[in-house]
Design goal:
The protein has about 250 residues and is an alpha+beta fold. The chain has two domains: about 80 residues, 2,3-Dihydroxybiphenyl 1,2-Dioxygenase, domain 1, CATH 3.10.180; about 140 residues, 2,3-Dihydroxybiphenyl 1,2-Dioxygenase, domain 1 (Roll), CATH 3.10.180.10. Helices cover about 15% and strands about 30% of the residues. The strands form three sheets. Strands 7-8-9-6-10-13-12-11 form an eight-stranded mixed β-sheet. Strands 3-5-4 form a three-stranded mixed β-sheet, sandwiched between helices. The protein is globular, with a radius of gyration of 18 Å.
Length: about 250
């Protein structure tokens, strides 16, 4: 990356998560992988048939993303999305983390998932399932705060229980949280210990009104994907879920 951006590895892939300087402190874009040029052409045609404006042939952006080819477009709410094939792997350079983490569950499962707040759930579902072709995993009412519950729709396009969760919720940012899934439960415990000493505002009633930790939800298991995880607030204000063991 440059002085205004950084890219982070999770596996043999050249990068999985990018951070760039900006005013929004929010998710900037999400990328989804297809198998080959034909699959990319098919998705391009599918999007255009649905009336979506698709940008193709951006070789400069493809080089920046370190992929062979990509298309870029926006969902109905202006969220930038990209679909690509031919990402770069460095199999001869295995991930070695200074924290000693065993590794992350990626591969055919992708980088993780994120929870996305939208203004209109019907429009969102029509786009993500009807146009992009995501499949519904389940629907759950989620406590988004002490006095607010939203209905979450959990969708997948790969082997994960959900690749994206969508909720109609008046959140200050598009993204509520993103997930990183570690390979061992010990990795989760070690990450919890490291983050527990970092200051931040907590909302977990078990922790009280403390600012000595950025942990926002202590370790527990989700009812739908069975992930054992905790949540921590990032410096940007949205949250990180760090977990293990999802089905």
């Amino acid at each position: 990356g440059s002085d205004d951006s950084a890219q982070y590895r999770m596996d043999s892939r050249s990068w999985r998560i990018g951070v760039q300087k900006g005013e929004a402190d929010d998710i900037a874009f999400a990328g989804y992988e297809v198998a080959n040029p034909l699959a990319l052409q098919q998705m391009t045609a599918r999007l255009r048939q649905a009336g979506v404006q698709v940008k193709t042939g951006d070789t400069e952006l493809a080089e920046k993303r370190d992929v062979m080819e990509l298309i870029s477009f926006e969902d109905p709410f202006g969220m930038p999305l990209e679909i690509y094939y031919g990402a770069t792997d460095y199999f001869e350079r295995p991930l070695v983390s200074g924290t000693g983490i065993t590794g992350f569950l990626t591969g055919a499962h992708g980088a993780g998932h994120y929870l996305y707040a939208v203004p209109n759930i019907e429009e969102a579902l029509a786009f993500y399932t009807g146009v992009l072709g995501f499949q519904m995993s389940d629907v759950i009412d989620i406590a988004m705060g002490p006095d607010f519950t939203a209905r979450g729709y959990f969708l997948h396009c790969n082997g994960r229980h959900h690749t994206i969760a969508i909720a109609e919720a008046p959140l200050p940012k598009r993204i509520h949280h993103f997930l990183l899934q570690a390979l061992t439960l010990d990795d989760v415990g070690h990450a919890y210990d490291r983050l527990d000493g970092i200051g931040g505002k907590t909302t977990d009633s078990n922790l009280g009104d403390s600012t000595s930790s950025c942990i926002t939800a202590t370790i527990g298991r989700h009812v739908n994907d069975h992930m054992v995880s905790f949540y921590a607030q990032t410096p940007s204000g949205f949250e990180l879920e760090f977990g293990w063991g999802a089905r």
